[in-house]
Amino acid sequence: METIVMYSDGGSRGNPGPAALGVYIETLDKSYGEFLGTKTNNEAEYAAIVFGLKKIKALIGKAKAKKTVVECRMDSELACKQLNHEYKIENEKLQPLFLAVWNLSLDFAGVTFVHVRREFNTRADACANEAMDRGGKKQELF
Fold first, then answer.
1. Which among 37, 39, 73, 75 would be 20 to 30 A from 2, CA to CA?
2. Element holding 71 (H helix, E strand)
3. Cα 95 to Cα 67: distance, rounded to the nearest angstrom
4. Domain 2-141 belongs in CATH node 3.30.420.10
5. What are the strands, taking DSSP E only, across 13-44?
6. Shortest CA distance to 51 belongs to which of 68, 34, 76, 26?
7. Quick check: pTM over 0.90?
């Protein structure tokens, strides 16, 4: 069984404010950033995880995804603890995003959520910041 390591980060300048996501799929050496418009930081964090899982499935295909474990590394302690069922999700805007992650996780052999310190998530953070700087223009990074 293959394991793919993905780093994700979401950020907003203001809370809510202009927001973006950043994803670095270490195993596949792919980086992405996408501007999200006006969102909260937590919404952007979840959007990054959703984006990353969708991107991995698109890159490796449905059949291979079923035989792949994805390790999602993030510096959002809140999102990580919610996804690991340690915290309840009280914010109504986060509930559909949580469900999207949950449904996407069914496409893989397994998905784990790991909290990492900010200094170990610099690539995804850089992707998110670059996307915020670009605004609405999308592009694959690196």
1. 75
2. strand 68-74
3. 27
4. yes
5. 17-25, 30-39
6. 34
7. yes
